[in-house]
Amino acid sequence: MKTIGQTVLAIIGGFLGGFILFELIVRTALRMLESVPIAFIGTLSMVMPIAGAVTAVWLTRRKRRS
After folding, report:
1. Closest by Cα among 42, 60, 47 to 5
2. Please, are residues 47 and 12 in contact by the beta-carbon 8 Å criterion?
3. Where is the chain membrane-spanning (predicted)?
């Protein structure tokens, strides 16, 4: 039960972390570039939160094995 709770918290934290990183990238791109492709923003909005969740779960499982 403890590992399920850690995994759920890692997923939630990873989604939030990925979304925050996405926001930082998009805001920086909007300030630095005159035009940002919509496909770039759309792709990042899907990929970054999922990648953050996968990375967080992978790191928690790796920490548990050590």
Report:
1. 60
2. no
3. 7-26, 38-59
